[in-house]
Design a protein that fits this description.
- With 177 residues, the protein is an alpha+beta fold.
- The protein has 3 helices and 10 strands, in the order H-E-E-H-H-E-E-E-E-E-E-E-E.
- Strands 6-3-9-10 form a 4-stranded mixed beta sheet, with no helix packed on it.
- Strand 9 and strand 10 form a beta hairpin.
């Protein structure tokens, strides 16, 4: 979503620049900004400011994602021989259907490892070989992060429900469902 918005703003700046400069060249019209008539120099400064802003927004949208690097570090930290189980535990993550955020996915990380994108009304099944675990979700719409820590039992089941509106994860033990 950030990439789309960044491109849209950059295209908006280009459109405004084309319309404005063509009007100043023809002498047919001038541009106003919040009711202030802009001279050609003033309009040029406005476009320069918009362009600089667009460069920062595009760089942020298309630059390296620091969050992914943090998750890789978390994955390396989480691995510990004393935390391993001989039989994996099944982790089920469910996102009940909701009109809010219907088109937006949620990126899922289990112990720092990317598990994919969870969409509206979907369930994904994961496995963990670790006793102490952390499930992290990152909302694609606004980059908000929510997490839930839980213990897993060998051969057990853990069910986690994502409440998209409250942006919270609800951990249920296998006996709760």
């Amino acid at each position: 979503m950030k990439k789309f918005n960044a491109i849209a703003w950059a295209l908006f700046t280009v459109f405004i620049a084309i319309v404005g400069f063509s009007g100043y060249n023809d002498g047919t019209h001038y541009m106003t900004w919040f009711g202030i008539e802009l001279s050609e120099t003033g309009f040029l400064l406005l476009i320069v400011v918009f362009s600089i802003s667009d460069i920062f927004v595009l760089k942020n949208a298309f630059g390296k994602d620091k969050f992914i690097d943090e998750m890789k570090d978390k994955a390396a930290e989480t691995f510990n021989k004393t935390n391993e189980m001989e039989i994996p535990c099944t982790v089920t993550l469910t996102r009940p259907g909701n009109i809010f955020g219907i088109a937006m996915g949620v990126r899922v990380f289990l112990n720092g490892i990317d598990q994919g994108i969870l969409k509206n009304e979907e369930t994904i099944i994961l496995q963990t070989w670790l006793i102490l675990n952390e499930l992290i979700v990152r909302f694609n719409a606004d980059d908000v992060v929510s997490s839930a820590k839980f213990n897993a039992a060998p051969g057990g089941n853990v069910h986690i429900i994502l409440n998209y509106i409250k942006k919270e994860l609800i951990v249920k033990d296998y006996k709760d469902y």
